[in-house]
Amino acid sequence: MRDLSRIFKAYDVRGVVPAEFDADVARATGAAFVRLLGAPRIVTAHDMRESSVPLAEAFAEGAASQGADVIAAGLGSTDLLYFAAGSLNIPGAMFTASHNPAKYNGMKLCRAGAAPIGQETGLADIRAMIEAGIPAGPGRRGTVARRDLLDSYVRHLRTLVDLAQIRPLTVAVDAGNGMGGLTVPATFTGLPLTVIPLYFELDGSFPNHEANPIEPANLRDLQAAVRSSGADIGLAFDGDADRCFVVDERGEIVSPSTITALVADRELAREPGGTIIHNVIVSRAVPELVTERGGVPVRTRVGHSFIKAEMARTGAVFGGEHSGHFYFRDFWRADSGMLAALHVLAALGSQDRPLSELLGGYARYSASGEINSEIADAAAAMNVIEKAYAPDAADVDHLDGLTISFSDGSWFNLRPSNTEPLLRLNVEGPDDATMHRLRDEILARIRSGREA
């Protein structure tokens, strides 16, 4: 058996195939998954990577060996798998490495109702069970049956966003050779949308660019397509299509914080006084707008397990992250890039202004985006930064890394990576000059290692 410590991450399983993650690991995980949950029935789906089909099949074999019946949904996005686990109320397993390069693959696991499974909520137990050796299953072997859930997924999404009266729109979409190439055509059928497709061919070798739209370089083709075609909007999805990024009609990248504010506004109009979740890195424009609209903003750590836990605790209607993950109470508190895209299309198509004007009131500050620095001793570097800036700060907190706010409205967050020797810096200011000055000063301190 492989060294599972290398691939069992905080929120999922992910590793190089087959050196770190192979069919034996998938088969054992399927068996342990069923034993842990006592599940009589589960559902699986997989992305377009070459290794995804054999891994999903091996997982199903392991699950069936423990007596569980497996619904194999086949090709799908991660949010399609969440739909399946939610609507069928059974545990699920998605085979994908999301935006990682082609040599990787992985598993995202959830309980019935799409409740997430991470290290503290079952993933560590599954790993321990595999390492200890999984007992033989009961006498009855489960079945594996293919079931196409794409149409049901689309119908459910279309019940959550009213698109009946939108004006005709031209939409450029970059699927990055990922699962958006399957789900976008199915979801957009019948809508007054002229789609300009980029890289819709399902190809897990990612021949055009990485399927990771948080990196600006991977949005250049979409920006160019929007400008050359005169499209009203551009949409980009990551490899498993659970994240969505937006480009406006000028070809400018729209911050996920701005999309969070827009969708929060729409959800609060539908449910006045509702709770909206946002992580520590989302723009301060989000809690400001939520408060102005009569809602309740709740701030959390970065990561889907924290967002979903707070949504469950507070009954929040919506949650958003800086990374392009958007979570919906009416989608089992799971994240769906497609549902976020439909909200943006509904907002744009229900009025006549271009997207940049529509979003003007939601983008209030200047933000750096996430900047990574390779640092051997992250804790020491963070101590240096806190010592330098805390004396002049209006507020210092450690909810997730180090967040320091100043009286002029600027703030920064500095967090260590969970998996790499990196420090992640996000800075926001009331204007470009203030943000740039603070950003450059902090980066110089981090990278030089000098104290104040």
UniProtKB/TrEMBL annotation:
Entry keyword annotation includes Magnesium? yes
Instruction: Tell me the Gene Ontology biological-process terms attached to this UniProt entry.
Output: carbohydrate metabolic process
The Alpha-D-phosphohexomutase C-terminal domain covers 370-443
Which first-to-last residue range defines the signal peptide?
A: none
| Keyword annotations | Isomerase, Magnesium, Metal-binding, Phosphoprotein
Keyword check for Magnesium, yes or no.
Answer: yes
Q: Which GO terms describe its molecular function?
A: metal ion binding; phosphomannomutase activity
What Gene3D superfamilies does the annotation carry?
Alpha-D-Glucose-1,6-Bisphosphate, subunit A, domain 3 (3.40.120.10), Alpha-D-phosphohexomutase, C-terminal domain (3.30.310.50)
| Cofactor(s) of this protein | Mg(2+)
Task: Write down the top EC class of this protein.
Answer: isomerase
InterPro entries named in the record: A-D-PHexomutase_a/b/a-I (IPR005844), A-D-PHexomutase_a/b/a-I/II/III (IPR016055), A-D-PHexomutase_a/b/a-II (IPR005845), A-D-PHexomutase_a/b/a-III (IPR005846), A-D-PHexomutase_C (IPR005843), A-D-PHexomutase_C_sf (IPR036900), Alpha-D-phosphohexomutase_SF (IPR005841)
Membrane-crossing residues? none
Q: What is its EC number?
A: 5.4.2.8
In this protein, which residues make up the domain named Alpha-D-phosphohexomutase alpha/beta/alpha?
6-131, 151-251, 257-364
Q: Which NCBIfam families match?
A: PRK09542.1 (NF007088)
Q: Which family does it belong to?
A: Belongs to the phosphohexose mutase family.
Q: What is this protein called?
A: Phosphomannomutase
What species does this protein belong to?
A: Frankia casuarinae (strain DSM 45818 / CECT 9043 / HFP020203 / CcI3)
Q: What is the lineage of its organism?
A: Bacteria, Bacillati, Actinomycetota, Actinomycetes, Frankiales
